Structures are given as C-alpha cells and as structure tokens.
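Hi everyone,

Forwarding the result from last night's run.
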Amino acid sequence: MPTIGDTAPDFEAQTTEGPIRFHDWIGDGWAVLFSHPRDFTPVCTTELGYMASIKDDFDARGVKIIGLSVDPLDNHDRWVQDIEETQGTAPNYPIIADTDFAVAKAYGMLGPEVEGDPTARTPADNATLRNVFVIGPDKRIKLVLIYPMTTGRNFDEVLRVIDSLQRTAQHQVATPAQWQPGDAVIIAGSVSNEQAQERWPEGWEEPRPYIRIVPDPAAA
C-alpha cells in the first residue's frame, strides 16, 4: 500500500462528474480520496452526506474531495438520491466508479487477485476499502487513515490534519498533541536556531532545546 511520502498513484477513471485523470484533476492544490466498500452501505451513506455538508470547509483550504466505490455509475446515481433523501445533502463532488478495481489495487486496498463483477462482491469482501488519503500539491501522500466498516470516519479530524499539514508546508512548523487552529505550534526540527531567529525574531518559548514553541503563524 502506498504510504506517507509516496507519490499517489495516478489513474484514469469514470466518475459521477465525468472521466478524470487523477493528477490532472488534483491540479496545483490538495486532495482527499476516500473509499467505500460498496454503494448502499449504511455508515458510508452518512459519511458521503456529511462530506457534502462540509465541502465549503475543504474548498476554503484549496482541497478537492473525491469518493470511490467499486459499483458502476448507475448505482452511484441511485445512491446519491438515497444520500440526499436520508442525509439532507447530496454529494457535490465526484465519486469514482472503480468497477475494474484498478484504483483500489493501485492504492493497496484490494489484492491483485481480485477480479470479476464488482456487484457480485459483498461489502464484507471489500472491507479494506475504508481508507482516507490526503494528497498534497506535490502529488505525494500526506496522510493515510484506515477505518473499520462499523465506525464512521471523523472528517472534522481530516480537516484538522490538513490545517496542520498546510502550516508545515507554509511555515515550517509542527503541531503538538490535541492541537487546534489558533493554538501554539512547534518550530520544525529541520529549522536551525539561526533560521528560526530570522523567521521569529521575537524569539520562542523553549522548555527543552528540542521544543521551540511559537504562536500559530496562520492566526496572526
């Protein structure tokens, strides 16, 4: 399975919003790819609806979101109606129809031996398609989360991690345990004291030489 730091596998796929080539679709921004074992599964139905309801939060961070299931597009279209009726918000982002399992295999979510009619497989057969991949503008994977089928994913946490990742990319800082936007951050270990002095001339709190604490630069 591709992991943090690896280049996200590129692919061509059919989606509910037309055909895409993944890297071209991402463009110069960030992306979240989140996968589902099958259409018409209860937990995933709630997740797709919730993601639609907070899409503006992803947009504000320059992040595109895209779902994936092995079902064909006609099933996706019917599932979208169910999601809107039961969750109050229809998916407003593309959902990949990975009917040949190519994307699932490329991302290590299904084994290379998997083949055949995707609609003949049960959700339990595809239980490993419960992943979240956050991908940066450099097309490298920044976060991988894997959830069991019975636990709904916390997409507010995905937003929190994206906030942290974007601060690292822009300001060379790390974020401590339980960090929330606006909380103090830690100067990255890759930044020397000389470099830190240039960036933070007012100095920093230093309970230990390897812990250099400064205010959240994005909150200024």
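The helical segments are 22-26, 42-53, 55-60, 73-87, 102-106, 155-171, 193-199.

Cheers,
N.
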